Amino acid sequence: MTRTIRVAGIVLESVTDGPGIRLALFCQGCHHNCPGCHNPETHDPAGGREMTVEEITALYNSDPLLSGITFSGGEPFLQPEPLIIIADHVHAAGGNVIAYTGYSLSQLRKLQETQPGIGHLLDRVDLLVDGPFILEERSLLLPFRGSANQRVIPLNEGEGKTLAEKINSL
Ligand code: SF4
Is the CB of 91 inside a 6 Å radius of any atom of ligand 1? Predict the structure, then answer.
């Protein structure tokens, strides 16, 4: 399993990428080309820098204030294998996992038929925010989302449901 990941950036104590204080990992590479994208520098899959999963998990361990990790981008589901390892680490440390994606959940379920890593990553994500950024549906009022088409989807009844309830109560 790949133990390196191309990263566009990291924010150690983010309060804008989901409930609580989170490690926000911005993955490098995206092919959705949403008009109005705020992070075009994340699109080139060869851009950013390469990090090992150990570097990222060490960063997570270094901060006791963190309640979880958020995979954002870029498109995180282009690099599922290292994210699986990181998600397992965060869960073992008692944290939760949020992932953003420009795909819809149904598109990811279809992709997992030929790319099982995508399914294995979905198995480890507590809360998914899905769908591309649509400029015409942009909203500054929606917590933790850029446009109204994007859905907050709990992928389990535990942490996922709790995170969704927190977002929906804002
Ligand atoms: S999915 Fe995100 S990073 Fe990719 S083009 Fe759309 S808004 Fe930009």
Answer: no
User: CA neighbours within 13 Å on the CB side: how many for 10?
Assistant: 16
CB-ligand 1 contact for 76 (6 Å cutoff): no
Q: Residue 163 is part of which domain span?
A: 4-168
Contacts of 62 (CB under 8 A, 6+ apart): none
Helix (H, G, I), strand (E, B) or coil at 6: strand
- Among 6, 17, 28, 42, the mutation site with the greatest number of ligand 1 atoms within 8 A of its Cβ is 42
Number of neighbouring beta carbons within 10 Å of residue 28: 25
CATH number at residue 89: 3.20.20.70
pTM confidence score? 0.97
Q: Which residues is 26 bridged to in the sheet? A: 9, 72
- Tell which one of 133, 134, 136, 138 to mutate to probe ligand 1, the residue whose CB is within 8 A of the most ligand atoms: 133
Q: What is the pLDDT along the chain (170 residues), one digit of tens a residue?
A: 889 999 999 999 999 999 999 999 999 999 999 999 989 999 999 999 999 999 999 999 999 999 999 999 999 999 999 999 999 999 999 999 999 999 999 999 999 999 999 999 999 999 999 999 999 999 999 999 999 999 999 999 999 999 999 999 99
Domain count, the chain: 1
Cα 23 to middle of ligand 1, angstroms: 19
